[in-house]
Write a structure and sequence with these properties.
Layout lengths: L9 H9 L9 H12 L2 E10 L5 E8 L3 E5 L3 E5 L3 E6 L4 E6 L2 H7 L22 E10 L2 E10 L2 E8 L5 E10 L2 E15 L17 E2 L8 H11 L16 H6 L16 H6 L15 H12 L5
Parallel strand pairs: 6-12
Antiparallel strand pairs: 1-2, 1-11, 2-3, 3-4, 4-5, 5-6, 7-8, 8-9, 9-10, 10-11
């Protein structure tokens, strides 16, 4: 697959992002996608994520009314059971918990990989969308689909709306890796729409056997995580290296050539976490890895708002 999945030119994409509207976007395909998902009692989706130039990975997403979610990736499992959101590190089989609120559930779907399907549990799904354009018809994995490119702030995601299901069976979007644009293609291989909502007690929303809870420390600040950065990212604790210094809170917020090192409230979308986990090049530290418990503390600090 190549970037041919995008059907807008660079100029027209910029124009879409620049659009500012004060009303709901009027697009029949977007309405079909939103309505079909909001009417579904539950869905189960097996899909692949192809970050062009990287290894293809298999993921799975289960969503059920009202607000139950299980998202499995090779590295983690995220479970929302209606009252609590748990994130399981698959390597260590340990997990952290946070209270489930509309805001924390929305943060789970902040990743463009699964954002399109959040319409099922987010009544405000279309609110951040500033423009939507219907594109060409095509065949994806044997299914007839129509392209729908959406713009929200500086984010562009092309959805592939399944003609029979009425909602997306895949998306394409761009992200940055090592200062370069990378095309990401997400395509469902299996989609099952349930006739009834699932129970919160079902196995889909329970933790893996033997998973150990990592207690959530209270009041993490930059002072709490600075020793972790010093031990694992020492090269960046003095003057800027590669344009990035982590020596102070202000420098972390400023970031380097690719922008701020952290995205307060969303660890998975933070460059610092992405380079530590190898999701973004170059992986840091280049030799070795940040201990699992220290990584969990860094992620918690960011998810809690990256307080100074």
């Amino acid at each position: 697959m190549t970037s041919k999945w995008f059907f807008f030119s660079a100029a027209s994409l910029s124009a879409v992002v620049a659009v500012a509207v004060t009303r709901d976007v009027d697009n029949s395909l977007l309405k079909s996608h939103t309505d079909a998902l909001q009417k579904a009692p539950s869905i189960s989706i097996a899909f692949t994520v192809n970050r062009l130039g990287s290894e293809i990975q298999d993921e799975k997403l289960v969503i059920s009314k009202p607000g139950l979610v299980r998202w499995e990736t090779p590295a983690k499992i995220v479970i929302a059971n209606g009252t609590t959101i748990s994130e399981v590190d698959r390597k260590s089989n340990s997990y952290t918990e946070t209270d489930q609120t509309p805001e924390s559930l929305k943060a789970v779907f902040g990743d463009d990989v699964i954002w399109a399907w959040s319409a099922m549990v987010d009544a405000q799904f279309t609110k951040p969308i500033t423009d939507a354009k219907t594109g060409a018809s095509r065949n994806v994995k044997g299914a007839a689909v129509k392209e729908l490119t959406t713009a929200r702030k500086d984010r562009l995601v092309t959805l592939y709306i399944d003609n029979k299901l009425g909602f997306a069976r895949g998306v394409t979007f761009e992200s940055e890796s090592g200062g370069q644009k990378v095309t990401n293609v997400v395509l469902a291989s299996e989609i099952e729409v349930g006739k009834e909502p699932l129970m919160a007690s079902s196995t889909a929303f329970t933790l893996p056997a033997g998973a150990k809870k990592m207690e959530k420390a209270a009041g993490l600040t930059f002072a709490s995580v600075r020793p972790i950065l010093q031990a694992s990212c020492g090269c960046h604790m003095g003057g800027p290296k590669g344009g990035l210094s982590l020596s102070s809170y202000a420098n972390v917020m400023k970031g380097g050539r690719s922008g701020p090192a952290v995205n307060p409230g969303n660890a998975d979308e933070s460059i610092l976490i992405q380079v530590i986990t190898g999701q973004r090049a170059p992986k840091m530290p280049p030799n070795g890895a940040v201990p699992t418990d220290k990584l969990a503390t860094l992620k918690q600090w960011i998810n809690d708002g990256a307080k100074e």
